[in-house]
Amino acid sequence: MKKDLGVVEAVFPMPVLMIAAYDENGTVNVMNAAWGQICDFKQIALFLDEGHKTTENILKTKAFTVALADRDHMVTADYFGMVSGHKLPDKFARSGFTAVKSKHVNAPIIEEFPVVMECELADVLKKGSFFCAVGQIVNTAADERVLDDQGKIDVTKVNALIYDTFCHGYYVCGEKVGQAFKEGAALLKEK
To answer: pLDDT (tens digit, 9 = 90+) per residue, 32-46?
Structure first.
């Protein structure tokens, strides 16, 4: 039997995404965003507050990066979600992290995070309080330490953080339990 909980704005798992962009002076700003998802081939949708410093930067520069936060850098990833770039202009500098300019878009790559998507702003969807920045993924880069023998990203090596929107905890992605588009094949067989 299920118990009614009322409205709970939560889905699990949610990625912990580090969104980075330059401001008009070339200063790096990074925010922690859990509401983001691949929305089409080669596109990612970020559901952001229009007033965030990073959002303002994305709209000005038309580019951004999206990195997967990992267990080793959880403290700083959480810090990026706690502090506003509007209130603390040197937010990124205080982190001690390193940023390099993307070779593909006008946005910073945060070196410490193991996987990053480099994106150009493709569209902005806005209706009432709903605001979504859609990025065209131009390139994905990953540290060699998180790649498998075929050169693909091995999520068990990434130790990607997952955000629990029910209780606001961080978890780590880990054990592989099946293969998509294969496990259900047994139910397709005639009986």
So the answer is: 998 999 999 999 999
